[in-house]
Amino acid sequence: MNTKGTYITLLLAILLGGYFVVFETDMLGMAESSRRDRERRGEVSSPSAGKAFDALDGITTDDIASLDIRQGDAPAVTITRTGDADSSWQQTAPATFAMQTWSMDELLNDAIGLRYTSRIKPSELSPATAGLEPAKAQLRISGKHNDESFTHTLHFGRTVAAGRAYLRIDDNPTIYVVNDRLHKRLNQPVSDLRSKSLATITPGSVQHISLVRGDEKVELTQDAGIWRMIAPRVGRADRAKAEELVNAISYASVAEFIEDAPASLARFGLDKPAAILTLHQTTITEEDERTYKLAIGNPTDLSKEHYFAMWQDVPVVFTLGKSTFEKLRMPAEDMASRKLVEVSAGNVQQVAINRRTGTLVFVKNNGAWSFGDPEPDYSIDGSRVKELIKELTTLQAASIDTRDSPKLAKPDVTLTITAGGDEHVLHLNLVGEEYRVRLTGETFTKLVPAEKLEWVNKNALFFRDRTILNVPPEDITGLKLRRSGPHAASYSFARDKNGAWQTDGHDTAAVNRLLGFFTPLRATEWGPWKASADQPGQVNVTISLRDGNSRQFMLLDPSAHAAAMDDVDTDFRIEPDLTALLLSELRDRAVLKFDVDQIASIGIGNNVVSRSTDGTFTGDWGRDIDEAKAGALFDTISGLKVEHWLQTASPAGDRLALQVNTRDSRSRLLKLWQADNGKAIGQVDDGPYFTLPADVYAKLTAGVLAASEK
Fold first, then answer.
1. Per-residue pLDDT reduced to its tens digit, 423-445
2. Residue 572 · residue 564 · CB < 8 Å
3. Residue 488 and residue 534: Cα distance in Å, rounded?
4. 667: Cβ contacts below 8 Å, ≥ 6 apart
């Protein structure tokens, strides 16, 4: 078509549209003029604008029990109230589907609140011209008002200019002019009135879940809040995962209604759905039993953001978002509980560990744990048993194997947990770096890293009471420590007549920490360990008690933290902090007892670096000072503490001397050597020699000149 032809066609369309607007407006105007003429002649009453229909007078939405909607030649749609007046609405024909309560309320309020502004006789306006023969749509409402049944049918005609439309009610031939709001509402698909939510289901009320995906069928059952899987394997199910399946329906929201009663479900993938979820619900009585069924078919397009679905086997196709479909793709193994055993730690009364090397049994009586038969000749560490049971009742498998598998070989370990009178038997097979665990009554296997269950192979000694010395602190009256090796020393501490510990000349804080380790003294692990009696670093401690007795403690192997007690039949490990303390210097380690503000200057060889009262540093050799290094030097010297005091003679080799001058005109000479073994050795004035930590020696010998001045 050429440009001229296009303009002509457009002009004709505008003229034709204008004709219809003028025609309809004129038609209404003539009808309104005729009505006013008849009013003047007394032939009709003069209604006020927005007059109610007598047939609908007094009817409320609560009176309406059902309604039928017919749109053109389409089959009538029947919608029925379910239950009381405030309950929900449901489409019952030609398909069954829940309706949105608020949408239904709006529709019914518009219907019974309908008002007309004009009445026209059929002789003045042809019903066919008004679009009433046949009607564009019909709405029939039925119910009971004041104990009398009623049925009224609204016939909807054409909509015209100025937001008005034609309507007839029941068999009355009069044509009414009304607001076109209800006309527009009925011109929309009835599916717009449907609920976008499928159902609200409480997970606790669901007793059975069936999920079919092709040839795979997963079934879960629930009793008293406990979920079990009965297919494809048998065992305890994960409650959260079961509830996630229930919520797949509860939280599902229809994105779009596609088609009612389609000729073929195959084009939607609903003839052989990708997933079918069925929930069986029981609430209070058998009459409350309900079954919910959701089928999901193909994705609507390549983006796979939405999927075709069908509800309750009703042939109404709609779409759901991919989140619902993803929930139904959950692997069966994810639905199985990963906990090894579903019992509370507080309810466990007995644990039996049966291994090929023997059996170990723990029994709880009156809240206290003890060894069962066979019972060793030492007491149990109840705290360690509690730790074991806590681990056992909370441990979760790394993964689940729900596939068919051959019968497991004879278990390496069998755990029997007795709780609440019930026995829960776990069979453990070690395969590589993991245990394959199966609970009696379950047919799937739980895979657990071997390190998580390493205690199952521990002997009774592992659970032995680890208390070595358990006396009140006030019952220890004296402590003597003798240490051999490179830092040989002998210390003796006692209480005075008032019960206070005498620590003069010693590191009081270190002594108090040492006493704290012995009240009580606990092993971290039982031995035995073989150690040489004259091994360097061996420590012997004599502990004097108030009753006149004493106990002998020995550190056998510092590297292994291995120790022994005179009346304990087995060696044991101690905490590394106690080992370090036993090997540490317990004498007073401070050699320069003044703070940094008291130091005026430090002589380094023939040069002096001074510190002013405001904290700045200067040198007498006219070079820049590295403030950070100078600060580290002054801070390290103030309150300098030794690592160990030595009994050795003067070390050989070159030395570095630091002359420390205080603001009160005192002077101390700090001499430093680097021994052949790499140890840093120091001396203040002519006092005893001592060792220093490597990092302290590095700060003292780092120098203070700025990099650019070196």
1. 999 999 999 999 999 999 999 89
2. yes
3. 13
4. 659, 660, 661
